[in-house]
Amino acid sequence: MTAVLVVVEHDRGILADGAGEAVTAARVVAERVGATLEALTIGEAADGLAAPMARFGVARVHQAHHGVLDDYGPEAWGEVVAQAARHVGATVVMATGTDRGNEVLAQAGARLDLPMVANCTAVEAVSDAPNRPEDGELTRVRWGGSLLEATTLDAPMRLISVAPHAFEEAAAESPGAAEVVSFTPTLDPTLARSVVRGRVERVAGITLASSPVVVGGGRGVGSAEAFGPLEELAVLLGGVVGCSRAVTNNGWRNHTDQVGQTGTRIAPTVYLACGISGAIQHWVGAMAAKNIVAVNTDPNANMVTKAGYAVIGDLHQVVPAISAEIRRRRSG
């Protein structure tokens, strides 16, 4: 039986956001083609991720161990993926469509002399007959999300990364065995020339990418200080503050808060977009939100026309009023 191999992205043993989505997508493909679903974890720090893979229906978890794999390195990880894919006889290799996932899969593709398709939102037809283009129909995100491209991938082993939020993470109907199999790759010491050696730690807690509620501010907020009421509302709602590119360009907030094509893609339950015009670059990052509420004085603003709900008014009055009403109801 053929295998679909999914690379389990992690950071020092902590499962990456979107990793569950990639494993879910890989299971969908494996079930469609009648292949076994197998996972690859890289480095001893990831050994604890084998058990959680069972709920996704993973049959085997290949744990790659080597001294070079103490921390993340794109060259080393790419070589491990290439060797593991050959080892298990994978016809499809999948990974998260994050910066790291795409980087690792591209490294593996270079070593296998194979093409890859990045940031797929749908895998319509992939079979174990790799020489027929019609069996490799995919939909992928192009131009930062402003274009969806239907494409085919004709290769003996298909390398596919999954676009963030394209697949909803879901457990399998029946858990898999998640049998642990040790895998020792052959790695040249020179692969350690690009390895993470230090980090600047961010404050712990929910992130912009994972928050269930995001309160976004655009140019209409007016200044860095004027983000105070948005911060207050975000705290009341158990969420975080995001912003548009215009805000970061003006130096009002850090780039890590930016939602959009060149920022973070979000998929919250609620996105409250305040004073944001809704340029395509921003919409690309916000369109996966389940509910969008736009607050704007311009009823024809792009964000207003695309939102499910809209409040036509001054955000400097609307946002404090929402916070006041939340506090009133909670105190009652």
Task: Give the structure's gist in a few sentences.
The chain has nine helices and 16 strands. The protein is of the alpha/beta class and 332 residues long.
- Report the C-alpha radius of gyration, rounded: 22 Å
CATH class annotation of the largest domain: Alpha Beta
CATH superfamily of the largest domain: HUPs
Order of helices and strands: EEEHEHEHEHEEEEEEHEHEHEHEH
Helix amount, in percent?
A: 25-40%
Class computed from helices, strands and strand pairing: alpha/beta
Q: What distance lies between the first and last C-alpha atoms, to the nearest angstrom?
A: 62 Å
Mean pLDDT: 90
For the largest beta sheet, what order do the strands appear in spatially? 9-8-7-10-6-1-4-5-11
The profile of the biggest β sheet is:
9 strands, mixed
Any guess at the CATH architecture of the largest domain?
A: 3-Layer(aba) Sandwich
Query: Which fold name corresponds to the CATH topology of the largest domain?
Result: Rossmann fold
Number of strands: 16
What form results from the Cα inertia axes? elongated
Give the low-pLDDT segments: 129-134
Descriptive notes:
About 25% of the residues lie in helices and about 25% in strands. The chain is an alpha/beta fold and about 325 residues long. It folds into 2 domains: about 5-195, 3-Layer(aba) Sandwich (Rossmann fold); about 215-330, 3-Layer(aba) Sandwich (Rossmann fold). The strands form 3 sheets. Strands 9-8-7-10-6-1-4-5-11 form a 9-stranded mixed β-sheet. Strand 2 and strand 3 form a beta hairpin. Helix 3 packs across helix 4 (about 100-110) and helix 5 packs parallel to helix 9. The model is unreliable at about 130-135 (pLDDT under 50).
